[in-house]
Amino acid sequence: MKLHLYDKIISPHITEKSTNLSEQNKIIFKVPSKANKLNLKKNIEKIFKVNVTKINIINKKSKIKNARGRKVRVSGFKKAIVTIKKGQNIDLTLGI
After folding, report:
1. Cα 29 from Cα 15, distance rounded (Å)
2. Which domains does the chain have, with CATH numbers?
3. What's the pLDDT score for residue 42?
4. SS3 of residue 62 by DSSP
5. What is the rounded average pLDDT of the residues 3-20?
6. Do the strands 52-60 and 26-31 form a parallel or antiparallel pair, or are they unpaired?
7. How far apart are CA 78 and CA 35, in angstroms?
């Protein structure tokens, strides 16, 4: 199965921590479970026209939480922390 350029990035992962990391030229994206660093680097450089210096990938495991007295499974996901070259930025408000 061949993935399209935009299939490698599901969405930006915007939290308080990711907002603080953006000051260090780091952007966090949710990515598919099959994504790897090499493909992510190529695709992000093509889509956003920036130079990627480093990528860290983290697997968030699924959890079981209590919601209204029932046990509910919260699905896990894979996220990529992308470090871009100093002086460049990605404007996430524009959309892809």
Report:
1. 11
2. 5-84 (3.30.70.330)
3. 92
4. coil
5. 82
6. unpaired
7. 9
